[in-house]
Design brief:
By secondary structure, the chain is of the alpha+beta class. Helix content is 28%, strand content 21%. It has a domain of 91 residues. The radius of gyration is 25 Å and the shape is elongated.
Length: 141
Amino acid sequence: MGTLIDIEQARASRRAAGHRPPASGTRHPPPPATRHPAASRLTFFSRSELCKLLSLYSRRVVNGEWRDYAIDHDATQATVSFYRSAAEHPEYAITKTVGHRGRPGLFVLKSGPQRIAQSPSLEEVIGAVERQPRLVWSSAG
């Protein structure tokens, strides 16, 4: 664990080492851009894809069907999982895989271990979620 020091002590030690604060209004040049090779190899959902996925999630939350979601990503795929409750396994998971050698990536819809749909189009996979049977609650008792 680090040692706590007073800010004035830190400033005094920096002045003693010859560091001078910049003049008022002076800007420092931005630090050089560094590549993060590990981050560049990860697969992510784009902003528009996330918007579509979260729109689906919000509609199902309003209907009382889903209560939680999770997003995970690594070098080969990004996955969003939808849950009825946080303590259960995901009801559905949509995975985006990376395409290889000029082939487009795929979106895969799974329910547990069962693969329900697969397409290069996210809209088709979301449509497959919408076509799945749903549990309908009735207020008549």
